[in-house]
Specification:
single chain; 498 residues; 43% strand
């Protein structure tokens, strides 16, 4: 473990002055950059600690920076008003087990692909811990082509900044506003960002304006912790009240450069989306401000929001924007609520092999209510047989079915007196009380004047009952008889077909 003080930027190149292609590995080495930039410097002119960028920029060229490298185990103090590590036009670079302290940014990247940040700590930065920038520095960065224009304006670039940010700690102790723990002002392209298992913390409730501030999306945020962050997740739109166009971000007067930070508007109209699952937010004004997801969709599930003071979820509806809510937990004591949210239906398609069966249960128990195979029944025994009036419909028992497609059947039993003259007996499953079914679901026998004390049991014809809401099905009987008495009992049962 050694300590190194550096009074200027350290450009990573090989012995021939060409682009660096190795690894930067330390074992607790402390590297302190003692030089300084100015608070008013634009990002393209800010001071650098370590820096990697192409030795030459050629229009139409491929990535010319660092490829396939690793930064491991270093403790880096950034230059004042600068960044600890500046990385441009590079790909497949990983930062692991490093600590970054101070500076305008801890790490700033431009036009990089497939970088990984894992198990690092970022502390006491002014603007952001991790920043994806498009600063317009055409002397060192090639931004690609857009709309047929070579080396187009950075805000119109199709470069994909797509880092994975996994299990890192972000913390700032600045008493003035910090802009964001992660600032994504990168390309207006289809970027995929996996932000998972990170800890975002400010030591006072007004210390950080944003946890993740992004102007474009397809974000995946899983199991992150946001504490004392005013707006933990903010997706900017082109017409947002803060950000977009030439509007300065509200509430970040303490941020560099020159007291403000400006986010350019989107230029190519991508439909943005996001997946936010299992995150925890505490003490936020607005936990999830997804108003920038215009024309896209968001899946928002199993998040916990505690002590929110304004809105747990805020969405400015536009076009086909929808949010699918997957069961979040909201502590309402802080006043958190929803604003302008339209929920979409969630559909699940399951394809089974032709030989497979969808079972409600695989043992001798009852299938769960609402699943295929659910069984319900109701019966009246002979001891509680219902007395009948000749040629008059009578309910024996009823069955309540929830919405779905059911197969309904049953049995009815008729008990005549010793001298009863029996003309007709019938039974059916009906959707109308004391009214026989109007279809072919009626079972009927005609003894033609048989005198009996012989009980008769009839099976009720199986019928399909397809219903959209909870509905009562009646077991209805009717007998035509004379001289003596007639009573009836029976059962009705149903099984869910789908």
């Amino acid at each position: 473990s050694s300590t190194y003080k550096l009074s200027g930027a350290l450009r990573l190149v090989n012995a021939s002055g060409n682009n660096f292609q190795g690894n930067l590995v330390g074992s607790g080495a402390n590297i302190n950059f003692t030089h300084s930039g100015n608070a008013a410097d634009a990002d393209s002119a800010m001071a650098h600690g370590f820096e990697v960028y192409p030795t030459s920029v050629t229009l139409g060229s491929d990535i010319k920076g660092w490829k396939g490298g690793e930064v491991y185990g270093l403790n880096i103090t950034a230059p004042a008003h600068g960044c600890a590590f500046y990385l441009a036009n590079s790909q497949r670079i990983s930062f692991e087990h490093c600590s970054f302290t101070g500076g305008r940014y801890s790490v700033a990247m431009e036009c990089c692909i497939n970088t990984v940040f894992q198990r690092n700590t970022f502390t006491n930065y002014v603007n952001a811990g991790l920043a994806l920038l498009m600063s317009g520095d055409t002397a060192r960065v090639y931004y690609g082509a857009y709309g047929g224009v070579a080396n187009a304006n950075p805000s119109a670039s199709h470069w994909n900044d797509s880092p994975q940010v996994l299990s890192n700690g972000f913390e700032t102790s600045n008493t003035s506003f910090c802009l964001a723990h992660i600032l994504d002002a990168g390309s207006a392209s289809e970027s995929i960002r996996n932000v998972q298992g990170n800890y975002f913390y400010s030591n006072n409730t007004s210390g950080t304006q944003y946890g993740i501030l992004t102007r474009n999306g397809n974000y995946t945020c899983l199991s992150n912790w946001f504490e004392n962050v005013k707006y933990p997740i903010r997706v900017l739109s082109t017409n947002a009240a803060e950000g977009g166009g030439t509007t300065h971000l509200a509430g970040v007067a303490g941020a560099e450069p020159s007291g403000y930070y400006q986010i350019n508007s989107l230029v190519d109209g991508y439909s943005l989306s996001g997946t936010f699952i299992g995150n925890y937010t505490f003490g936020a004004s607005v936990d999830y401000d997804l108003s920038g997801i215009n024309g896209g969709s968001c899946y928002w599930a199993n998040n916990i929001m505690q002590a929110s003071t304004a809105y747990c979820l805020q969405v400015v509806q536009s076009g086909s924007t929808r949010v699918v809510d997957g069961g979040n937990t909201i502590d309402a004591s802080g006043g958190g609520a929803y604003k302008n949210v339209t929920y979409a239906s969630a559909y699940v398609r399951v394809d089974y092999p032709s030989t497979a069966m969808l079972l409600g249960t695989t043992t001798n128990d009852l299938a769960t209510a609402g699943t295929i195979g659910e069984y319900v029944a109701s019966s009246i025994g002979p001891g509680a047989a219902t007395s009948l009036t000749s040629n008059t419909n009578k309910n024996i028992t009823t069955l309540s079915l929830t919405a779905g497609d059911w197969d309904v059947t049953g049995n009815v039993a008729f008990v005549p007196g010793d001298t009863t003259n029996i003309v007709n007996m019938q039974g059916s499953a009906s959707l109308v009380s004391e009214t026989e079914a109007t279809d072919f679901g009626i079972v009927s026998v005609n003894p033609n004047g048989v005198t009996g004390a012989v009980n008769t049991i009839l099976p009720v014809t199986s019928v399909r009952v397809s219903i959209a809401t909870t509905t009562t099905v009646y077991l209805v009987v009717k007998a035509t008889f004379s001289v003596s008495t007639m009573s009836a009992y029976g059962c009705i049962h149903a099984r869910r077909a789908r």
